[in-house]
Amino acid sequence: MKTMPCLSAIAVCCRTGYIESWGRGIQKIIDACKNLGADDQEYIVSGGDIMVKFTALQSAKVPDSKAPKGHDEPLKEPMEEPLEEKILQVLRHIPNCTYDELTEALGVSCSTVKKSIKQLSEHDKTVRKGGKKYGYWEVHEE
User: Fold this and answer.
1) Angle at CA 13, nearest 5°, toward 7 and 19?
2) Which of 15, 31, 43, 73 is exposed most, by the fewest CB atoms within 10 A?
3) 125 and 88 in contact (C-beta within 8 Å)?
4) Helix (H) or strand (E) holding 8
């Protein structure tokens, strides 16, 4: 195995004090790569440095293109905001729903719910009637 001279050079550096401590991080990475079936690592000596190069598995590689082919055209219709639609559905069934109840039902933060309801109110899709404690939400249908 041609990597042994580099390993022995690292060991010499460790024993002579050039390397503070002999860690196990790289060895753990090497073992994990072997368990996954990855190619052997490559040791590169450049000047006074020793570098370890790991090759990514084919399944882990990400294509360079950000958009799949055929998806570079603009959308003909704007996408619906699914969270806002979910909020409207909950408010239709439970008009006296609180921010905390919406947060729990939708699995999002309270600030996210408040921002979405603010947008819905600005677009005249919902309005709060009454006070905080005994009020309710009125949903305006389009």
Assistant:
1) 110
2) 73
3) yes
4) helix 4-15
